[in-house]
Write a structure and sequence with these properties.
Elements (H helix, E strand, L loop, with lengths): L1 E9 L2 E7 L4 E6 L7 H9 L15 E8 L5 H9 L9 E7 L4 E5 L2 E3 L1 H11 E5 L9 H12 L2 H29 L4 H14 L5 H13 L1 H17 L4 H12 L10 H27 L4 H21 L6 H16 L1 H47 L6 E8 L10 E8 L7 E2 L6 H15 L7 E5 L7 H14 L4 E5 L3 H4 L4 E10 L2 E8 L2 H12 L6 H14 L1
Parallel strand pairs: 3-13, 3-14, 8-12, 12-13
Antiparallel strand pairs: 1-2, 1-4, 4-5, 5-6, 6-7, 9-10, 10-11, 14-15
Helix pairs in contact: 4-13, 5-13, 6-11, 6-12, 7-11, 8-10, 9-10, 13-14, 14-15, 17-18
Length: 553
């Protein structure tokens, strides 16, 4: 339910803060006062298109925030959790528009895309107006409404589960179908596999051979440098070892004279040990290092072979073992493809049998519900100045053998007046007729709707008199189930509101602004009297307004 709306610098609005309650709220005012501005502002928080022209003259940015109570809306809470936007049962939608035309969207303070804002908005509010493209015109939503009316949710859930399982098997079957198509390549795949198998590549062999090749190819330089290092360390007349010993002989006796030289002597001792170990390591390395030209050629030949095979398979040498395993798996799948495919087709047929049984049951329930819904809507049309009008629901079989939503599509059709040809609701020419039919459908489906707030923006255009009172009654009836906001110019409709706001336009400091105020019982009577017409409010119009308000209770 919409609880609070804050609007700053939008169109003629400088700053609005409006709290909404349950039941039916009506918005009235003189023509051109800006009654629909509130709806336009709210539409922005639901993801509608933004334009810098919407910003109030002289301002850099407009800011609109809508707060919703979602305590009883489990599907909305689930959506917020799924998108990591849940925050202590809060639901705050915000939209800002800058003078450069750029806009930003937020849900519970976190930046979101317009698509996300729109998705959540569709769960919270449904706006009905003469020029609004709303849910009721979408065939998929029409089917959803019919299923809600028929209480098909559990059946649909089972049907979609079977469909998902069938789709999983279809993907697996497609995989084995492709394998069968590649059966002609089996000989080639087997050749590739045998080639890799004969290569007998070992784990980390390429890295090991590369390192050994690098060493052997530099053997001459390695031997030269190692021998020269040994000469410098131990075999020259003035070698590193002899210099260290002479230094130790000079400094050693001084430790007893000055303790500050102790650390220097320790370092010399450690250096002597390290140089001695280095000499031993070099001698041991040289004793074992026996570079063989034959071994170098052998390694070079092996690496060339490995790289040549790798190029043929278009992979790095390190990936050849993985490639061989993949080929082995593919060959095994090819050998048993027929068997796997037969098993999958059998399982898929079993699922399809179950699906068709459920789909048949769903089709039957939809057909029965469609007759009841069509009859109920047609009856409401008679009350809404559409005498002789008829509403029907037509079905069309899907081309697919299996679909998540069942075996058929549905579409709402209407014959607004006797003698007119029936046509899809989405193509109904008259906006007023579309609004009234939509209103009739929403009233009937109110007990099944999942959208907690319905907004009607001048749905009463083109009607008056007794029909206007019927519209008011229907909206009041609808407000027993969901929150209803209604922009109206008819006193007969406004009289049925539980809460009443008046929109006014005025000039302040040479700037036109729109203001909004909640009406008391007395001021509400005066507003109804104004709406009844006349140059001035008279005792007669006030009495008439009082009577209308009393009858609407």
């Amino acid at each position: 339910m919409l609880q609070h709306l804050t609007i700053k610098n939008f169109a003629l609005i400088e700053h609005y803060e409006i709290s909404f309650d349950r039941g039916m709220t009506v918005l009235t005012g003189e023509t051109g006062a800006g009654k629909s501005i509130l709806i336009d502002a709210l539409s922005l928080t639901l993801g509608s298109r933004a334009d810098s022209k919407m910003i109030r003259a002289g301002q850099e940015r407009c800011d609109i925030t809508a707060e919703f109570n979602i305590d009883q809306l489990n599907h909305v809470q689930g959506w917020l959790k799924e998108h990591d936007l849940a925050e202590d049962q809060a639901c705050l939608l915000r939209r800002t528009i800058n003078s450069d035309g750029k806009s930003r969207a937020f849900i519970n303070g976190q930046p979101v895309t317009l698509q996300q804002l729109n998705e959540l908005g569709e769960l919270l509010i449904d706006i009905h107006g003469q020029h609004e493209h709303h849910f009721l015109l979408k065939r998929d939503h029409q089917l959803l409404l019919l299923d809600e009316f028929a209480q098909n949710n559990a059946l649909l859930q089972s049907l979609r589960s079977l469909y998902d399982q069938w789709q999983t098997l279809e993907k697996q079957k497609s995989h084995f179908d492709q394998l069968q198509q590649n059966n002609s390549q089996k000989e080639f795949l087997n050749f590739q596999y045998q080639e890799l198998k004969e290569l007998a590549l070992q784990t980390h062999e390429v890295e090991t051979l590369d390192a050994e090749f690098k060493t052997l190819s530099q053997a001459e330089d390695i031997l030269k440098r190692c021998h020269e290092s040994l000469t410098l360390l131990a075999e020259e007349e003035v070698s590193m070892t002899s210099v260290l010993r002479q230094t130790q002989q000079l400094l050693g006796p001084l430790e007893s004279i000055d303790s500050h030289l102790n650390n220097a002597n320790k370092n010399l001792a450690q250096a002597d040990v390290l140089i001695h170990e280095t000499i031993l390591d070099l001698r041991q390395y040289l004793s074992h290092f026996n570079p063989s030209p034959d071994r170098l050629e052998e390694i070079s030949s092996r690496l060339d072979h490995i790289h040549r095979i790798a190029r043929k398979h278009r992979v790095k040498p390190e990936a050849l073992m993985e490639t061989m395993q993949a080929l082995e798996t593919k060959l095994k799948e090819l050998e048993h493809a027929d068997e796997h495919l037969a098993q999958l087709e059998k399982a898929q047929q079993a699922l399809l049998d179950q699906y068709q049984a459920l789909a048949k049951q769903l089709s039957k329930q939809r057909l029965q519900a469609a007759k009841r819904l069509a009859k109920a809507v047609s009856e409401e049309m008679q009350r809404l100045a559409m005498t002789g009008g008829e509403f029907e629901i037509r079905f069309q079989s899907r081309d697919e053998s299996i679909h998540a939503s069942g075996a058929e599509r549905c579409e709402f059709w209407v014959r607004p007046n006797p003698g007119q040809a029936a046509q899809p609701l989405a193509k109904t020419a008259s906006g007023g007729e579309l609004s009234r039919i939509s209103l009739a459908i929403q009233v009937i489906l109110a007990a099944h709707t999942v959208v907690p707030t319905l907004i009607f923006d001048e749905v009463d255009v083109g009607i008056g008199g007794a029909t206007a009172s019927i519209v008011g009654q229907l909206l009041k009836q609808l407000a027993n189930h969901v929150q209803v906001l209604c922009v109206t110019h008819l006193p007969q409709v406004a009289a049925f509101g539980d809460h009443h706001y008046q929109v006014q336009k005025m000039v302040v400091d040479q700037q036109t602004i729109a203001s909004l105020k909640k009406l008391s019982a007395k001021s509400r009577q005066e507003e109804i009297a104004r709406m009844l017409g006349g140059v001035s409010i008279t005792p007669q119009s006030l009495a008439h307004a009082k009577e209308m308000l009393a009858q609407a209770k």
